[in-house]
Design goal:
About 35% of the residues lie in helices and about 15% in strands. By secondary structure, it is of the alpha/beta class. It has two domains: about 5-105 and about 295-325, NAD(P)-binding Rossmann-like Domain (Rossmann fold), CATH 3.40.50.720; about 105-285, Rossmann fold (3-Layer(aba) Sandwich). Strands 8-7-6-9-10-11-12 form a seven-stranded parallel β-sheet, sandwiched between helices. The longest helix is centred in the last third of the chain and has 19 residues, at about 295-310.
């Protein structure tokens, strides 16, 4: 056994030097390629010593993982979402799951607004129109206003509140549906509650912000797209599998909805042969909701602090299953 706790770091990009130094001051660090399984790439003796890990949603935290890391006590997710975690298995093995809420709210909200503007004003096609020289042969087709329209939020949490506040700058009426009503949001005048079907029927722009779980997987499909206005736009910055992607493609091809702005897809990275890539009424982004220098730095700081605190016996700032700590 090593004298100090040994931790696993598995990230798609290098951790900032000063944050890595904070970890190194407390722990012995074992690096592993992002998305790898410890049992596949690390000696059994090393796996047996791991007490904590710093990861992203690229890494699964499930029964097999916890069987291969028998001393694991803390898994610090550098993400607000934790659909990569089998929470029931984590609770059985008494593995504390930490995440990074709040620090990415503004960055994700900015992408939502950006996708809305790109869809309604057709900005991506407008850029190509000018670059191609087509402007010299005639004007660009008319687009649509968003001011005074209705913005719908499926899911009202921390990010949803920031989105609601942001789109009010465009004089939009904001409605939402959530599993539980958010009376604070309503009292602040940020959004009005409606039932789920009304949300899909009335929204001119509908943004999906629900977490991915067994209940929400493919929960938005042909039925929901059929209720939407043919002039409406769908935006998804949550998880790709919340949508029935085949049904979305059918709705976009048939004109059941006007367009979609997607920062997340069922398959990531999205292959170029995906039908989504050839549809003119789709704006695609590479899961960049939190991908700014400032936000990724803040997420790294929080994830590192969560891991250090938890293994040092200090209550972490953000826990998915705090009942284990309590």
């Amino acid at each position: 056994m090593t004298a100090r706790p040994r931790i696993l770091v598995s990230l798609p990009a290098p951790l900032h030097d000063d944050l890595r130094a904070q970890l190194a001051a407390h722990f012995d660090i074992v690096d592993m390629p992002s998305g790898s399984r410890p049992a596949d790439v690390l000696p059994a003796g090393v796996c047996a010593e791991i007490q904590g890990q710093l990861i992203t949603p690229h890494n699964r935290v499930d029964e097999d993982l916890m069987q291969s890391l028998p001393r694991l006590r803390v898994s610090s997710n550098c993400s607000v979402g934790y659909d990569n975690v089998d929470l029931a298995a984590a609770n059985r093995h008494k593995v504390l799951i930490c995440n990074t809420p709040n620090v990415l709210n503004g960055a994700v909200a900015d992408v939502v607004v950006g996708l809305m503007l790109c869809l309604a004003r057709n900005l991506v096609a407008g850029d190509a129109f000018v670059r191609s020289g087509a402007w010299t042969r005639g004007p660009f087709p008319l687009t649509r206003d968003i001011r005074g329209k209705t913005f719908g939020l499926l899911g009202m949490g921390r990010i949803g509140r920031v989105v609601a506040r942001s789109v009010q700058a465009f004089d939009m009426k904001v409605i939402y549906h959530n599993r539980r009503r958010d009376e604070e949001t309503e009292s602040l005048g940020l959004a009005s509650y409606v039932d789920r079907d009304t949300l899909f029927r009335e929204a001119d722009v509908l943004c999906v912000l629900v977490p991915l779980n067994d209940e929400t997987r493919h929960s938005i499909g042909a039925r929901e797209f059929g209720m939407m206005k043919p002039t409406a736009y769908l935006i998804n910055t949550a998880r790709g599998a919340v949508l029935d992607e085949a049904a979305l493609i059918d709705a976009l091809r048939s004109g059941a909805i006007a367009g979609a702005g997607l920062d997340v897809m069922e398959t990531e990275p999205l292959p170029a042969e995906s039908p989504l890539c050839s549809l003119p009424n789709v704006v695609l982004q590479a899961h960049v909701g939190s991908a700014t220098h400032e936000t990724r730095r803040a997420m790294g700081e929080m994830a590192v602090r969560n891991l250090i605190d938890a293994l040092d016996g200090v209550r972490p700032a953000a826990m998915v299953n705090p009942e284990l700590w309590d």
